[in-house]
Amino acid sequence: MTKDGLVPWPEDLAYAYRTAECWRNRPLGAYLWEWADRWGPQVAVVDGDRRLTYRELAELADGLAERLREHGLRRGDSVLVQLPNCWEFVVVMFACFRLGVAPVLMLPQHREHELSAIAAHVGVRALVVPDTWRDYDHQALAHRVAAGLPGRTAVLVVGAGSRAPSVDVRRLIQAEGDVEARRQRLDDLAPSGADVALFLLSGGTTAVPKVIARTHDDYEYNIRRCADVCRFGRDTVYLTVLPVGHNFPLANPGVLGTLYSGGRVVLLPSPRPDLAFAAIEAERVTVASVVPAVAVRWMAAAADCDRDLSSLRHVHIGGSMLSPQLAAAIGPALGCELQQVYGMAEGLVCYTPIGAPPEVAHGTQGRPISPFDELLVVEPGTSRPVPASAVGELLTRGPYTPRGYYRAPDQNAVSYTAAGWYRTGDLVRITPAGDVVVCGRIKDVINRAGEKISAGEVETLAQELPEIAEAAAIPVPDPVVGERVCLVVRLQPRRRLTLDRLAAALTARGLAAFKVPERLVVLDALPHTPVGKPDKKALRLMLRRDA
Ligand code: OOB
């Protein structure tokens, strides 16, 4: 690891990736103007009544970039961005890309617990939040978080409710002045392709979420390959319903892949079927990406829906397990072709190809988007390969899979092998044709509608409660969201605990709502493994028996 906390790719591989033009040594901000020059008057982003052309997007992003510079942000700095799906998100992202300032992407559902830990870990210079979102005061949240950080951390607020000492982002998003001169000034300040473009959160298995630094070069390659595999083009109209801070809707191909291809991005604040179907009809949406839980809701709603969904050509589904039966039913229900995607914020992305036969389209999670992706299936927890087509843990390396988490040497010793493979923690098999089938996982996470919840994070926080002596967070299967968090506890002597009290206590400690246990089981004693950890396999079996 270098002193700045990044783990570089080995020099010989970096050379190979550059020579093969995976990496183009060009920052993402430079593409913005390339697109504006090519597709200037075309609509790039739609958010309700607001429609931004490619030209406007470039001008507004440059205007904001210059203002952010006046507020002291410089190449190499980072800012925490917690915004819902809105047009300002896109402008903020590109303003940051132009300056070489790296956004750290959080979800609107995150609270003090997550924001404080990540902001401190990365050392952000500013927080960008909405004024309120779903009746929650993010502006106040951001000021609480900022107050707990060393140094001065600016709070930038998107929304009419912005009040001093917050900085009002909408007032900064202005394209006044000499556009060409500003473009030149910012071009002169541009970061290098090897700089960090953005930070993504890992679903995480540890008490504190881990952070992945993605470079301009690696992310651009990821976007380019995804857009190519999914055949995005100028006629693509992409509907964004998942939180855009996730890698999947942001860049696989998602929002950035659409802009890369000259298409149109439609942003919606939620995946509610009535809103989504109205947008599909109104904007003639051609492609959307969803997690299986959302697909199920859409299928049910499509059965008696009077909206015209005929423009929809593809739906991308990934993020959590999808059964072949459900996969086969989605296309007919929504009148489009399904593409499965298996990906991760850490890098690797697989897609089922357009036009794949049913056994591939429904029965696999696709093949890597790049010929430079390396996949190795091993006996779990080792580096010993399993026989061809056998199930094992997937390890991966490649030009858009960084070699380690940011500033996390201890974690990296566990999550990455000495030879630089990322241990996905997923159990897979690879078919003779090279398609990945996800069979399960060995990592200690709960996958709730595609949101990854670290069991360790929930347990650590729960164990701080005075009632709890020992806690284990385990997934319980759920027909709607796939899995929910169940907390199994042993209480302190003479203490009592209800689910309501547990939920209230964890919420008060600033834990995001989607991580709060939805079931509580109190035992006199937890079963243990030989090394003395709670035996989660035994607990899962026990709960299944009792269900
Ligand atoms: C996506 O990214 P993350 O970082 O939220 O989560 C990655 C993990 C994977 O390691 C795997 O455990 C699970 O999510 N996962 C799937 C899956 N796709 C992801 N499990 C079963 N089937 C699938 N199709 O979730 C993500 C990132 C980019 C594109 C798509 C999903």
UniProtKB/TrEMBL annotation:
The keyword Ligase applies. Keywords: Ligase. Transmembrane segments: none annotated. InterPro entries: AMP-bd_C, AMP-bd_C_sf, AMP-dep_synth/lig_dom, ATP-dep_AMP-bd_enzyme. GO terms for molecular function: acid-thiol ligase activity. It comes from Micromonospora eburnea. SUPFAM superfamilies: Acetyl-CoA synthetase-like. It comes from the Bacteria. PANTHER family: LONG-CHAIN-FATTY-ACID--COA LIGASE, NONRIBOSOMAL PEPTIDE SYNTHASE PES1 (EUROFUNG)-RELATED. Residues 33-406 form the AMP-dependent synthetase/ligase domain. This is 2,3-dihydroxybenzoate-AMP ligase. Residues 457-533 form the AMP-binding enzyme C-terminal domain.
